[in-house]
Specification:
The structure holds 2 protein chains of 2 kinds. Helices cover 43% and strands 19% of the residues of chain A. Chain A is an alpha+beta fold. Chain A has a single domain (6-121), classed as Sufe protein. Chain: A (Alpha-Beta Complex). In chain A, a hairpin with a 6-residue loop joins strand 1 (26-31) and strand 2 (38-45). In chain A, helix 2 (62-74) crosses helix 3. Chain A is globular, with a radius of gyration of 14 Å. Chain B is of the alpha/beta class. Chain B folds into 3 domains: 2-106, no CATH class; 107-171, no CATH class; 176-331, 3-Layer(aba) Sandwich (Rossmann fold). Chain B has a 6-stranded parallel beta sheet with strand order 12-11-10-13-14-15, with helices on both faces. In chain B, helix 5 (186-195) packs across helix 10 (308-323) and helix 6 packs parallel to helix 7. The longest helix of chain B has 16 residues, at 56-71. Classes of the chains: A alpha+beta, B alpha/beta. The interface between A and B is medium-sized, with 14 and 17 residues.
Chain lengths: 122, 334
């Protein structure tokens, strides 16, 4: 029996927005130092500061890849101060996560936040 | 073979002693080593390398080296390879070899240093020695005018150039071993592979694992997204790929990349069941059956390896066997 929701399975097998942007405004890479999940999030902003496009790349387990895929869909049209929070992302995965896998699910969001922070400090 | 030559020359350079270099330039019949084997004999009697695997021929070359060092003149010797031993064993004859023994002059050391620089940059270079005069030419890229129209061999050997004999020493850059996964198994893998002359490259997303402390002798350590690194490095007919991460997020995309190249060896750590599951996932990504059969999993030769060092030995042994076109069975069963 597959422990993951259909939405996780779907986004893992057919990830959305997997790849790179030509000229991203935000680009941040983050890794889990022990399990080796590594993600790079890229975001392009429109003139009004809203996310115009987002992409991700990386070596990712099923949960992390599904979360990155979902996240890049969720943020399009949002401003950087209105990014989804952790619970919103976990809820969107519709899967009960053990604490150890919660870190996997949140890695893409952590990368996005770190990149957004660096961008706004510029 | 090139790394052996450069290692030996490096040791001699650092010793600062005069030495003679003996090179096996031609073989006839059955011989234990092939053209390009080298032995260096120092003026203090120190010996590095061998042109055969010991015995009378090496002893004779050592004796001749003393004369060459005294006269400073190169000499070409033809030597029968253990006819006495062959006769005692009831065989008709051994092979014979030609060995060039020459003083290792500053000019010769400089030519090898130039060749080593090109070799380190990944280029295959050739040193062409006219056996009658000792004149030597370095070929790095296009042929010099003196060799126009000559077809150089792929392996070191003696060829005819304008009715003269020329020994062509081919110095090929080291084969590369890409090791995906910087866990405990990768450590002895690097050690063994280095000793065999591979340029080892360790790749892992985790800085804490892919560190210089853990891999002091790795040729290169790369931390990042495995597929990106694999694409940057590039894989070709002189690249062997070993996947020991035991992690599908690395194994699957890297295998897909590796199978699209002509990498001669692609090994995947894991059970037969795991290997079948990963093959199935690749099949679903439209990788064709012939390509899937190139994946060697479970990885390594069956030597009963239990410790990480033993498993690493079985893996590098399989890599060598594949590169040499052998199946890795016992010599006694050939």
């Amino acid at each position: 029996m597959n422990p993951y929701s259909e939405i996780v399975q779907e986004h893992y097998r057919h990830p959305r927005n997997f790849g790179a942007l030509e000229k991203p405004d935000i680009r941040h890479e983050l890794a889990n130092p022990l399990c080796g999940d590594r993600v790079r999030i890229e975001v392009a902003l429109a003139d009004d500061g809203r996310v115009r496009a987002a992409r991700f790349q990386g070596d990712l387990c099923s949960i992390a890849k599904a979360a990155a895929s979902l996240l890049t869909e969720l943020i399009v049209g949002r401003t950087l101060d209105a990014l989804p929070d952790e619970q919103q992302l976990v809820d969107a995965l519709r899967t009960e996560l053990k604490p150890s896998r919660r870190k996997c699910a949140l890695l893409p969001l952590d990368a996005l936040r770190a990149g957004a922070d660096a961008f706004t400090r510029r | 073979m090139s790394h052996e030559t450069f290692d030996l020359l490096g040791r001699l350079r650092s010793s600062g002693r005069r030495a003679a270099m003996a090179t096996l330039v031609r073989t006839i019949g059955t011989t234990p080593r092939k053209e390009g084997s080298k032995m260096f004999v120092g003026d203090d009697g120190a010996i590095f390398g061998s042109v055969t695997i010991g015995g009378c021929v090496d002893a004779r070359v050592i004796e001749e080296a003393a004369g060459v060092l005294a006269s400073n003149d190169p000499q070409l010797f033809q030597l029968d390879l253990g006819d006495e031993d062959a006769w005692e064993l009831g065989l008709t004859c051994g092979g014979s070899v030609e060995v060039l023994v020459e003083p290792l002059s500053a000019a010769l050391l400089e030519q090898y240093a130039t060749a080593e620089r090109a070799w380190n940059e990944g280029r295959s270079v050739a040193l062409v020695t006219m056996l009658d005069s000792g004149e030597r030419l370095l070929v790095d890229g296009s042929l010099p005018s003196a060799l126009q129209g000559v077809e150089l061999p792929r392996q070191s050997r003696t060829i005819a150039v304008d009715e003269r004999s020329a020994y062509v020493e081919i110095l090929q850059p080291p084969a590369r071993l890409l090791i995906f996964g910087a866990g405990a198994l990768a450590m002895p893998l690097v050690t063994f592979a280095n000793e065999l002359g591979f340029r080892t490259i360790v790749i892992d997303p985790r800085e804490r694992f892919a560190s210089r402390e853990r891999f002091p002798r790795a040729g290169e350590i790369r931390v990042g997204i495995a597929t990106e690194i694999a694409s940057q490095i590039g894989m070709n007919a002189s690249t062997s790929v070993v996947l020991v991460a035991h992690d599908v997020k690395i194994d699957l995309p890297v295998l897909k990349l590796a199978l699209a190249t002509d990498a001669p060896y692609i090994g995947l750590l894991g059970s037969r069941r795991r290997g079948a599951a990963i093959r199935q996932m690749l099949r679903e990504e439209n990788v064709d059956e012939a390509q899937l059969q190139r994946i060697r999993t479970p990885i390594g030769l069956d030597i009963g390896g239990e410790t990480v060092a033993e498993i690493a030995l079985s893996i590098v042994s399989e890599v060598v066997a594949v590169m040499r076109g052998r199946n890795g069975g016992p010599m006694s069963a050939r």
